[in-house]
Amino acid sequence: MARKVRVAAAQMGPVARAHSRAEVVERLLAMLRKAHGFGAELVVYPEMALTTFFPRWVFDDPDEADAFCEAAMPNPDVQPLFDEAARLGIGFYLGYAELTEQAGRKKRFNTAILVGKDGTIVGKYRKIHLPGRKEADPTGCAGNFEKRYYEVGDLGFPVFRAFGGVMGMAICNDRRWPETYRAMSLQGAELIMLGYNTGSVRRTMVGNHQVQEPAHLSSFHNHLVMQAGAYQNCCWVVGVAKAGMEEGVEFMGGSCIIAPTGDIVAQAVTTGDEVVVADCDLDLSLHNRRTTFNFEANRQIEHYGLITERRGVIVAV
Q: How far apart, in whole angstroms, are the C-alpha atoms of residue 166 and residue 277?
């Protein structure tokens, strides 16, 4: 019997700086109920779903970022989402900015959690591949300053047994790095959830001139890396965006559900709040694991060159 889990990708439209947590949670609840109406068992929300994407700004005092962070999860603002999910018997992935204290020092992480159908937290992931700059960019090209506010994630790439399979989590820029998927695939991940907030265009300096990347490439590369990650690692990938014009920055959207074949089987078509659903047969991941990507039979790691171990995963350098 196939192990199918019906998954909903819950794309969000813009979240303004002035929007309260309560306002945002009401939107999340509306999509949760819609997903439940579609028969979904698991809802995937975007990266930093509870607030605007604050790392677009360079605050003189980085501690100003604390206002956008959650010191506990759940907390009174977000508890209604946990309660309603438990009532409906539906789980969710939620990205948010986390504020914590470790060894007497305050730390912020770009975090995601996986919540089970009973409303309890199954697992947590903290973003590892932080993009952008730490200091202001005099060229005006940079639109991301996550390195200014966040620590590099310290939980590795764990996987979790839930929803009848092996689940993994990643966040935004993680999707561009092959080792993200491989680290979880080697632990048996069958479905990877990935929230993102990504601008529609990129700018860089070439000599003394600011150059804008062709508009189609951002969307193309967004899907390319997730489809490749799904195919090469024999797993489902659910990529869910914040979309539309948020505080003067246009986010691309393009939320999608990708099969282990690399095929996009469901995709959002708007830049607002939108729910798309697909039945994810977790057993579909087994075919390529046993044939094309049968690592035990076909992988030739001893011929890759210098081998090292990083975060518990064998990689070639």
A: 19
Q: Which residues are catalytic?
A: 47, 127, 172
This prediction's pTM: 0.94
Q: Two tokens at 226?
A: 């997730």
Closest alpha carbon to 231 in 276, 183, 181:
181
Sorted by sequence, the CB contacts under 8 Å of residue 12 that are 6+ apart come out as 27, 28, 31, 45, 46, 49, 241, 242, 243, 273
pLDDT over 90, % of the chain: 86
